[in-house]
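2024-03-11 09:14:02 INFO worker-7 job=invfold-0412 stage=load source=structure_tokens
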């Protein structure tokens, strides 16, 4: 298998996973993914930046088949989709040193059993000379593990960012081909993986702004050439900003139609009042789409029926994931129904306690909604509309 040129002396040697449809047994991958590894050939030494998922080790090794020597295997991130093939690379290139930071050293030992004696520790700002190429290590913790770091080739102005700026997108082209497709995949990736780390990303973007960057090379998805570098940075600046949009996201489930009737009435009232609505019936929703909607929505309203005295499991699951991903929503509420009793609304309310959102009075009803119940939904809609107005969202 061939390597693919990124720029003079820098080659993509990763693996494409066209058929993968789920990551972490949780995240849908409608477009597959890639595990990007990069071979950097200097005049004196050769380095490999990251490896691939263990399931794709043979593809990486096939791309390295003609390579005679690797001096350094740089591990930017210890999660196995990037580090999993390090043992195989070490077995083939026996003199290679694994290069990472001190946290990475601990993690590579814990996750892959890599001998600490084979690891060379580097610190933020240190450089590694390959002869005519100098790799600078930039500490970028919490995108999305504490040990993550980036690499920058000073002579070529190539920035390698591992998961940051990544996209789950398999493509036969190393570089971005379709801006719109890449942007959507990057937003989905940000929503599913990076959203809780907004403040860390803000700091990293600030630091990167002091570098001249001609290429951004993440470890998932397409490489961004110079004409796309500003675009990928600007989108991330927008996503991590405190700005929210005039949007209400409604994730819901319904069993006999009562909750759905409430959701429909709420959506209609909000829309009539000038607020944008994205509603997601969780029985048929791609979780990634829901999470993308949460990137900048001002408000989330969960709709849940009652199952065995508690919330519907699909709504509970969505609430759990949304709470964990800490979106920047500033208002939240719950609407729901029950047959004979239960605590579904209280349960969802407590499950989203990690959101820094003002809780608006939930609406819970018994059985099919009556005119009086619809009136309560209208009160909630009116409150959301006025809150959005007061927040200057429209
Ligand atoms: Fe792509 Fe955090 O691994």
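2024-03-11 09:14:09 INFO worker-7 stage=emit residues=394
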């Amino acid at each position: 298998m061939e390597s693919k040129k990124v720029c003079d002396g820098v080659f993509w040697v990763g693996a494409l996973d066209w058929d993968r449809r789920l990551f972490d047994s949780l995240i849908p991958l409608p477009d597959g993914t890639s595990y990007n590894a990069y071979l950097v050939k200097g005049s004196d030494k050769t380095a490999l930046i990251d490896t691939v998922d263990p399931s794709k080790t043979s593809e990486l090794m096939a791309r390295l088949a003609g390579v005679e020597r690797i001096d350094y295997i740089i591990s930017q991130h210890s999660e196995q989709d990037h580090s999993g093939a390090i043992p195989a690379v070490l077995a083939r290139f026996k003199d290679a040193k694994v290069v990472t930071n001190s946290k990475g050293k601990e993690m590579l030992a814990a996750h892959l059993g890599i001998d600490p004696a084979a690891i060379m520790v580097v610190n933020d700002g240190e450089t590694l000379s390959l002869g005519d190429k100098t790799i600078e290590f930039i500490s970028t913790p919490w995108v999305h593990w504490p040990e993550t770091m980036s690499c920058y080739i000073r002579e070529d102005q190539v920035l390698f960012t591992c998961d940051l700026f990544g996209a789950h997108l398999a493509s036969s082209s190393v570089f971005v081909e379709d801006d719109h497709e890449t942007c959507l995949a990057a937003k989905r990736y940000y929503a599913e993986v990076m959203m809780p780390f907004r403040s860390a990303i803000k700091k990293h973007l600030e630091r990167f702004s002091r570098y001249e960057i001609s290429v951004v090379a993440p470890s998932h998805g397409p490489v961004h050439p110079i004409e796309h570098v500003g675009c990928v940075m600007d989108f991330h600046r927008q996503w991590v900003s405190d700005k929210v949009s005039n949007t209400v996201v409604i994730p819901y489930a319904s069993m006999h139609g009562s909750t759905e009737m409430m959701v429909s009435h709420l959506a209609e009232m909000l829309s009539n009042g000038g607020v944008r609505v994205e509603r997601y019936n969780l029985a048929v929703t791609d979780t990634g789409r829901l999470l993308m909607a949460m990137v900048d929505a001002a408000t989330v309203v969960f709709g849940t029926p009652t199952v065995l005295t508690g919330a519907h499991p699909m709504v509970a699951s969505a609430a759990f994931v949304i709470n964990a991903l800490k979106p920047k929503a500033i208002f939240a509420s719950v609407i729901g129904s029950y047959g004979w009793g239960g605590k579904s609304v209280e349960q969802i309310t407590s499950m989203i306690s990690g959101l820094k959102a003002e809780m608006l009075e939930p609406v819970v009803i018994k059985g099919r909604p009556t005119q009086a119940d619809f009136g309560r939904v209208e009160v909630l809609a009116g409150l959301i509309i006025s809150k959005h107005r007061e927040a200057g969202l429209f």
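2024-03-11 09:14:09 INFO worker-7 stage=report msg="The chain has a mean pLDDT of 97."
2024-03-11 09:14:10 INFO worker-7 job finished
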